[in-house]
Amino acid sequence: MKRPYRVVVAKPGLDGHDRGAKVIARALRDAGFEVVYTGLHQTPEQISQAVVQEDADALGLSLLSGAHLTLVPKVMAQLSAAGRSDVLVIVGGIIPEADVPVLEAGGVAKVFTPGATLPSIGAWLEEALDRREARHVV
Predict the structure, then answer these.
(1) Where are the domains of the chain?
(2) pTM as predicted
């Protein structure tokens, strides 16, 4: 890791299942990331504000409610409106295979579905942020 990256982990919408988000937050923290967990029932506006306030490098959205095709584009729009379309957005949760390309076309960098291992998520995120950091170093 080129530097400690800051990641906001958020649970948008009315989904009340946060065990997975807490496990991911802990695993990323153990891997050397600075992690801010926003808690349950966050609006796209609240999530965007947290990314701005924390000066986050990445945003992890955890969705189990089936509302990913509604909520993720709203979060992406809020990030863009806040001038933070540069943040690397990853999504995890119960996401049907057919919806993954839709989310990626909307700007999501990676979608992790059940079965993704904690080390693989951390390694992918570290590599992606390191690559991005290397592109921005002059």
Answers:
(1) 6-136
(2) 0.95
